[in-house]
Amino acid sequence: xxxxxxxxxxxxxxxxxxxxxxxxxxxxxxxxxxxxxxxxxxxxxxxxxxxxxxxxxxxxxxxxxxxxxxxxxxxxxxxxxxxxxxxxxxxxxxxxxxxxxxxxxxxxxxxxxxxxxxxxxxxxxxxxxxxxxxxxxxxxxxxxxxxxxxxxxxxxxxxxxxxxxxxxxxxxxxxxxxxxxxxxxxxxxxxxxxxxxxxxxxxxxxxxxxxxxxxxxxxxxxxxxxxxxxxxxxxxxxxxxxxxxxxxxxxxxxxxxxxxxxxxxxxxxxxxxxxxxxxxxxxxxxxxxxxxxxxxxxxxxxxxxxxxxxxxxxxxxxxxxxxxxxxxxxxxxxxxxxxxxxxxxxxxxxxxxxxxxxxxxxxxxxxxxxxxxxxxxxxxxxxxxxxxxxxxxxxxxxxxxxxxxxxxxxxxxxxxxxxxxxxxxxxxxxxxxxxxxxxxxxxxxxxxxxxxxxxxxxxxxxxxxxxxxxxxxxxxxxxxxxxxxxxxxxxxxxxxxxxxxxxxxxxxxxxxxxxxxxxxxxx
Length: 523
Known about the structure:
Elements: H1 3-14, H2 23-35, H3 43-51, H4 62-81, H5 89-95, H6 101-121, H7 134-141, H8 150-162, E1 171-180, E2 190-199, H9 201-210, H10 225-238, H11 249-255, H12 259-273, E3 284-289, E4 294-299, E5 302-312, E6 322-330, E7 334-335, H13 338-350, H14 354-357, E8 360-364, E9 370-374, E10 385-388, E11 397-398, E12 412-414, E13 418-420, H15 423-431, H16 438-446, E14 451-464, E15 468-470, E16 476-478, H17 502-512
Parallel strand pairs: 3-14, 5-12, 11-13
Antiparallel strand pairs: 1-2, 3-4, 4-5, 5-13, 6-10, 6-14, 7-9, 8-9, 10-11, 15-16
Helix pairs in contact: 1-2, 1-3, 1-6, 4-5, 4-6, 7-8, 8-12
């Protein structure tokens, strides 16, 4: 379509004038539209198109089409997280599937308005952004989106950065008195001072709207307390924090984290994501994302099981590597590593008789070496399940007797191994193809005897380090950098490799672990 024709139609739409029938008519109408009273409605947008000589923003070239695809992808993502009141963006996309010049002009102008409104929300306001800001954002939209879903999140963060970053949320500590009931019902309640964070409510609302944790309709309005608390919980879940709906020091720090630092973390994780693609061709596998404290069992591309896990702390971090699960052990013994023996002995000193009650015994190996072993039982630190993938790190997945620890926000508590909250379900997922049912598993556990079951088809296991991810709703999740790999800008790990062929992997494991059969595994 001729550029002057587009300009006339766009201006006619902009100032509520009927679209022109042809190019000559549109050129005649455009000057009158500029001078009419209705032209005062949106002069900046009129100027934007005028500076382009009437050229459309979102169609007419491959670059414009690419920009349009990126914008509609961002609008669709926001719409899935919570409708904005601006309508379904898919309708905007369908509007461009026409050869009619006037219809394309309407579509172009509608998308521009929707995009400016979106940019306003990413600034934490209900006002559309100034059209002049668009030209600053063209370089971001001209960067091709990768296939990895995180690339869209990276684009959104880059846009927030270009618009000035996250809005600050100020807070202060205040003391307040609370009533504390007397112990054992004796006497009346007493007052106790406690400190709590108080934040600027208007700033909090704008910040939560900016990150799409709170619908934009609450800007400038009274937000019901339950709605605001749920928005805070949503933000906390996305940042790996205790989701209590209360803004404390850690939540406040996460809200004020510079977007530039977040963007750098996303880009580091995008580089790590390249190692994830090959596993999509595997029939089934287990993956543990260490910073997320989560295990997933995936079969034929579908996540069949999710489980919380406990991983190593920063002194004894869980190693990042790939391997293959070869055995499932029921009621395993724990061969206490030399590095942990001292802890067990000190606990026994503090609590005489602990070792005997918990089933610890000293054993002498065939080579004459003495070692400390904890027999199977209710207090065994490995619980009732161990998932074995022999490796030189001497770590594995296992159950635990300390199940209450899964309720903590920080689950970096082990000596390096991975404790699984739902070990029975994982065992059934791995052994189901070999005829194991819940009833059969319960019968085997009732015997309370150590039993090692070999997997006929070994299952790949991936111990990953991803501090940035997307939750099931597509929201960006930013997790703590437990081991400092983000700060070190580490994008690859020596133990990570492509596991395309399970047989080849098994052979490599056999070779790698030759001569290591007697090595002690750590908890």
